[in-house]
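Researcher: Next entry in the queue.
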Amino acid sequence: DTRRIITCSWDGSLRLWDLKSGTQTREDWRDDNDGVFSMALSPNGEIVASGCGDGKVRLWDVETRKVISKWAGHTWVVRTLCWSADGERVASGSWDGTARVWDVKRGKNVLTIKTWHKGVWAVTYSPDSSKLATSGDDRNVVQIWDAKTGKLLNTLKHEGWVHSLAWTSDGKKLISGSYKLIRIFDTATWQQIAILEGHTQHVNAISLSRNDRLLVSASDDQTARLWNLDTNLSVGPPLQHQQNLRSAALS
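Model: Structure for this entry, 251 residues:
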């Protein structure tokens, strides 16, 4: 509804904030006080999936702030989560090196992908939910998988670890954030078509505007940057912070 934002933290909490006043709405959401490393809001905005240090994926009802489902399968931190466009599947990526697909209604793990990574840092569905892209530490690649069968479809080589991924809404481009560079790939050919340069450390997160014209990136170089994807150039000066940045989101 663009009036609220949800945050998750290693302190084990999820918190709901009012954007206009900047104040927290009601109490923290907690379950077992285990650190929360990732989260993703369902397409209808009613459920939040959270990934925790205990390897579990939890589903939360946004209105009641209560856990409605808890899925076990990963053996280490769940670092990344993504919903399918229809809200029927959740994909999770873990530092155990696997990506898993979960059936939301049945609460079951329906697909497990053993990636080439020691740890998965990003997993994202294509807009039509037919493919999954994964990335992580080790091997310096992005992998494209069939979301139903887990078959490896393509491998995109990089020069460093890839910590962040995003598809454009039309599915025609896949964007990756790695060491210093943001790369754009044409998904029809899987060829690299552009590089966005400016960061001086790892790009930990990227987020697209709804019209795919603006990209925001967050980096260990203590800056966030805005990019115009029509020109592939930066917009304005870097947004300076005092610490490394782990996340960024566009309204």
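Model: The mean pLDDT is 95.
Researcher: Noted, moving on.
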